[in-house]
Structure formats: C-alpha cells, structure tokens
Design a protein that fits this description.
The structure holds 2 protein chains of 2 kinds. Helix content of chain A is 46%, strand content 19%. Chain A is an alpha+beta fold. Chain B is built from 13 helices and 8 strands. The chains are: A alpha+beta, B alpha/beta.
C-alpha cells in the first residue's frame, strides 16, 4: 500500500518512537550521573561473600543494570562450579 | 537585588540567543533595568541579534581584565529603554572568563541597580557554558521538539544541579524553566513531532512557554531587532506571554493547538 500513502501524502507518526527512546536514555543517563558507578564494587563484594561458602572465580559473577518498563533492574548472574 | 537568569540548552542552534534577546527586551519593556551578557567568547552573536554590532567597542573580557570599565562596555539598546548589552569578546580565548572575573562583573551590575541580568550561554557543556550558569538564580532551558535537543537539555539540567553556586553552597536550588521553541502545532498534532507535554514529561520542569516555529524569527535576526518586537506575530506574543508567566502572571498557552484550515483558507492561502 506504499503507493497509496505516497499519493495521499500520508505522514509517519514517529514522535512516539522519539519519546520512548528519550525515556530510556534520559533515565539511564540520570542514574549514571547521580553518583559513582557502584557496579564494580558490588561485584567485588558479592565475590567476597559467596567465596565464604562456595569456591568461585571472580569472573563467574556478572552484574548488570537493565531497564524493564519503569524500573531499573540489577541483574546478578552467578555461575557455580560443577558439583561432583 | 539583581536576579540572574541564564538562558541555556546544551545543544546549539535551538534559539538561545533569540530567546536571550527577547526575554531581556521583554523585561526591559516591563520597566526593569536589564542587562544581557553574551558568554559565547570567540563566537559572539548577541550583538547581531540585538542590532548593535557596529557599536561594539569594548567587551565582557575587557571589563574582566580591567582594560575598560563596565560603563564603557555596556551598549544601550535602541529598541527598549532600560536595556543594556554586554557583548562577548570575539578574539580572546574562552578561558579569559574566570569565575572571579564573571562574579566581579555581575556584582558590579547589581551595584549599578540592575534588576535583571540575562546570561546568554554558549552551546556545549564546557567552560563558557558552565560560567554562564554558575551564578544563576533562575535558568531558562531552551528546547526544540527533537531528540538530541531534549537529551542535551536534560544533561544541562544535571550540570545546573551540580555546578551552580546555589547547588555547591547548598542554597535554594536554581529555579528552572522550560521554554520549547520552534514548535509546530501541526506536526505535533499529526504525531510527527514531540508535543510540548511530552517534553515537559521527559524533563520534569515547569513550562514557561512554547514559541512557535515562525518566519518572523529570521526576519527579526535579518534586521537586528529582537523577535519580541515583531508586533502581532505569534512569536512575539508567545514571548510576551512567557515574560508575563516569568513575572508570576497567569496566561493560557497560545499557538499550541492545530486548527485545520477551512476551505477558503486552503483555496486562497494566507498565513
């Protein structure tokens, strides 16, 4: 139908896309600017705590920040060594 | 007490200087003794927009460095009584704007009985822009309905909230105002452009006004007469309303709703 919209000069409504993208990037930049980036420290502390109970390598813990809807979510992934 | 108003945006080309010229002129028309200072060292343009480029002898940096006194450097505006322009230096380095120097000039303006000092910030977030917002009591953030402008406005708000004197000294924060410029009600209505409510929702600061996109702005800058003097144009009226709101009056928003042109208007044109 693109030829139809071409003839009738239909315009794309892209403002909503702009708004969504801005909501995400502004929220992320505000978090980034509102304090020191604590994720590396958090990862270090988590390694220390878990190492008290299980023997793991520091790189087995992955910490990340994600956005789900209106919430910022801290995601922690811990790979435990294989049990024998 | 003089009130220091910084006109800022982060992004360039959104209408900071146009707004500085019109806001300063509007305050002067209301009877307030007003100075407008160009902080864009090396790229001065406020003088052109105000139409006083041929009368520039001394500039802001000359005053800071003691080569001229304030009285010699201030240029009296031709279109509004009570209004004076302090141009930026065209030749010096932007580091010539020292914090002590800027503070000294602002204090002296206050001492001379100015009610309002309007600081026209350069684009960016570097030294000149930071100097322009350091001493602000109020900030007008000029934003276009466009992604990069909105993001940069948010960034500059963060800088106001961390680097202004008011923030550093833990005083009452800088009062922030949003001014949306180059707004097209038609394109916003058709979903092609962020609406002013979208922008306000994103930036979360009070709305001072919405200035419509208009040919009048180019006519104004061509002639060196601030847009607020372009009588009976939507741009001038929108700036006059914004001045009123700034001074605490209530004015409903105008020129923000799209009206479909009637058949006659479509047939015979007209603006």
């Amino acid at each position: 139908m693109s030829w139809l919209s071409h003839i009738f000069g239909e315009k794309k409504a892209t403002a909503s896309v702009a708004k969504e993208r801005l909501q995400l990037i502004i929220a992320r930049e505000r978090v980034g600017l509102s304090g020191p980036d604590f994720l590396p420290d958090l990862q270090k502390d988590l390694v220390a705590v878990i190492s008290k109970y299980v023997k793991i390598n520091p790189e087995d813990i992955k910490v990340g920040l994600e956005k789900q809807g209106n919430f910022e979510v801290i995601e922690v992934n811990i790979v435990l060594p294989e049990m024998r | 007490m003089a009130t220091i108003i910084t006109i800022t945006s982060g992004k360039g080309g959104v209408g900071k200087t146009t707004t500085s010229a019109s806001i300063a002129s509007g305050l002067a028309l209301r009877g307030f003794k007003t100075a407008v200072i160009d902080f864009d060292v090396g790229l001065r343009n406020l003088d052109l927009i105000m139409g006083c480029e041929r009368r520039v002898v001394y500039d802001f940096v000359n005053v800071i460095q003691g080569d001229a006194n304030l009285h010699q450097a201030l240029i009296k505006d031709k279109h509004a009584d009570n209004l004076f322009v302090l141009p930026a230096s065209q030749t010096r380095d932007k580091d010539a704007l020292t914090e002590e120097g800027v503070e000294k000039v602002l204090k002296e303006l206050e001492h001379q009985g100015f009610d309002y000092i309007v600081c026209d910030s350069p684009a960016g977030i570097e030294h000149g822009a930071v100097m322009a917002l350091t001493f602000a009591d109020e900030a007008i953030v000029v934003t276009n309905p466009e992604v990069s402008s909105v993001r940069d406005s948010d960034r500059i708000l963060g800088i106001i909230q961390s680097k202004s004197r008011r923030a550093v000294e833990g005083r009452e924060p800088v009062k922030e105002h949003l001014l949306v410029t180059r707004y097209s009600p038609k394109r916003a209505h058709e979903g092609e452009m962020l609406t002013y409510t979208d922008i306000q929702e994103l930036l979360r600061i009070p709305l001072l006004g919405v200035i419509p996109e208009s040919e009048a702005v180019l006519h104004a800058s061509n002639q060196g007469i601030p847009a607020i003097h372009q009588k009976d144009t939507p741009v001038a009226d929108a700036y006059l309303d914004a001045i009123g709101r700034f001074l605490g009056e209530t004015h409903p928003l105008r020129f923000v709703d799209y009206e479909k042109p009637g058949l006659i208007k479509r047939l015979f044109g007209g603006k």
